[in-house]
């Protein structure tokens, strides 16, 4: 899919004080092609064919997938005036990959997240599940996993596990653990509480005060924590998060640096001043050497891409709107009984238009069902459902009827 926007329209949007990124209806679907296979030569041919219709573009932004990158490069070789820009989101994912792919701590964190998701789904802890990990977009999802880790650390620190279980019970195994933390006299008194269930922390503490009113704060906390059934279940499944309490903040800072760059480009576009602005926004932060190096790599990207932009001009550097439209399409086709590319791809251009009564009237008057069917016959083979009906159609039997003599 190729989306387009007029340069004058982009400049108009960027001049608005509340602008925060392109929306679906800011763009037009210029081309929508379906291939059995894709390579650089095919992409270049599509771009050339499209340019014959709409003209040579000022700029092309892409995610730099191998086939797309090669196709764009081949096209730009024929039209040197075109500015080729790698999408900031995908480039940041490449930076994350370079930084974290060989980071044993982060890879261990990912493994724990995956195992925990499998272990706690459809349990009382399912609301604490880590986000799912998609292998192909693993480094596009760093933020989700790091944010989850930060929230779990905060949740654990708060110590309120009532959403898991409100009950308190000093079980036999916990009782054995706390013996070394409290005086012997207190241990004897606590035996009366063992294996008795209390519906809230307050109820349990009332009972605890009744049998051991002289218990100090440290001993009391140890006993209450060990009787907290919600906390015990949390610790059984998620205590491993403690191993990463010093590393997750570092990963969060990486995410924040990336956010600054992405936000800057999404709100103001890319210009020759983009690198300078980024450095000004981050100079107040004191960063460890690892993060300083990471920031430098972000700035290198900004330097390279902004150097292509003419003086006093603003261009674009984000293809998230394409991903968003594809995402909307995928949600739509989930309602389809068979997950296949079909005539439903015609819903994609509808994402970029404002659907009104007049729009529908014009469409119905200008395009017939036969036009759509002819287009579908030219683009698609028979659908999967159609093939299934043909293959599994019951065999017809014929019977000869004989007249009676």
How would you explain this protein's 3D organization?
The protein is mainly alpha-helical and 405 residues long. It has a domain of 60 residues. The protein contains 18 helices and six strands. α3 links the parallel β3 and β4.
Approximate strand percentage: under 5%
Q: Give the C-alpha Rg.
A: 31 Å
The overall pLDDT, averaged over residues, is 89
* Outline: elongated
Low-confidence stretches: none
- Distance N to C terminus: 72 Å
Structural class: mainly alpha
Task: Give the proportion of residues in helices.
Answer: 40-55%
Query: How are strands sequenced across the largest beta sheet?
Result: 1-2
Count of DSSP E strands?
6
Oligomer: single chain
Order of helices and strands: EHEHEHEHHHEHHEHHHHHHHHHH
Number of helices: 18
**Largest sheet, strands/sense/barrel:** 2 strands, antiparallel
Q: What's this entry about, in short?
A:
With about 400 residues, the protein is mainly α.
Which properties best describe this structure?
mainly alpha; 18 helices; 405 residues; elongated; two-stranded parallel ribbon
Produce the secondary structure layout.
Layout lengths: L1 E3 L2 H8 L13 E4 L8 H15 L4 E4 L3 H13 L4 E4 L1 H13 L3 H17 L21 H17 L9 E2 L2 H7 L5 H7 L6 E2 L2 H11 L5 H11 L1 H10 L9 H21 L5 H9 L6 H18 L13 H14 L23 H10 L2 H11 L4 H8 L14
Parallel strand pairs: 3-4
Antiparallel strand pairs: 1-2, 5-6
């Amino acid at each position: 899919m190729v989306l387009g926007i007029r340069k004058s329209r982009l400049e108009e949007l960027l001049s608005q004080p509340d602008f925060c990124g392109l929306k679906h209806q800011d763009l037009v679907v210029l081309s929508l092609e379906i291939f059995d296979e894709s390579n650089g030569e095919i992409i270049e041919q599509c771009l050339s064919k499209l340019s014959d219709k709409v003209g040579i573009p000022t700029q092309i932004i892409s995610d730099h997938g191998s086939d797309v990158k090669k196709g764009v490069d081949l096209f730009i070789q024929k039209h040197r005036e075109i500015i080729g820009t790698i999408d900031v989101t995908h480039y940041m994912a490449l930076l994350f990959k370079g930084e974290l792919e060989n980071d044993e701590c982060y890879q261990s964190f990912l493994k724990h997240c995956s195992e925990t998701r499998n272990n706690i789904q459809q349990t009382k802890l399912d609301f604490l599940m880590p986000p799912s990990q998609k292998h192909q977009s693993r480094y596009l999802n760093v933020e989700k996993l790091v944010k989850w880790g930060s929230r779990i650390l905060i949740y654990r620190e708060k110590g309120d596990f009532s959403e898991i279980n409100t009950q308190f019970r000093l079980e036999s195994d916990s009782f054995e653990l706390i013996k070394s933390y409290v005086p012997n006299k207190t241990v004897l008194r606590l035996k009366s509480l063992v294996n008795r269930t209390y519906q809230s922390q307050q109820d349990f503490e009332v009972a605890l005060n009744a049998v051991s009113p002289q218990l100090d704060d440290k001993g009391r906390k140890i006993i209450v924590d060990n009787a907290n059934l919600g906390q015990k279940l949390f610790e059984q499944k998620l205590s491993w998060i403690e191993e990463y309490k010093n590393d997750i903040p570092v990963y969060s800072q990486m995410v924040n640096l990336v956010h600054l760059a992405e936000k800057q480009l999404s709100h103001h576009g890319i210009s020759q001043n983009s690198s300078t602005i980024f450095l000004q926004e981050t100079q107040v932060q004191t960063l460890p050497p690892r993060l300083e190096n990471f920031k430098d790599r972000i700035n290198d990207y900004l330097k390279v891409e902004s150097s292509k932009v003419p003086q006093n001009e603003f261009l674009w550097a984000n293809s998230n709107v394409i991903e968003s439209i594809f995402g909307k399409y995928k949600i739509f086709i989930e309602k389809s009984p068979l997950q296949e590319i079909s005539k439903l791809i015609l819903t994609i251009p509808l994402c970029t238009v404002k659907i009104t009564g007049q729009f529908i009237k014009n469409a119905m008057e200008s395009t017939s069902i036969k036009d759509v069917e002819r287009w579908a016959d030219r683009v698609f083979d028979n659908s999967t459902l159609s093939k299934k009906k043909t293959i599994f159609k019951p065999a017809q039997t014929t019977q000869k009827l004989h007249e009676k003599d």
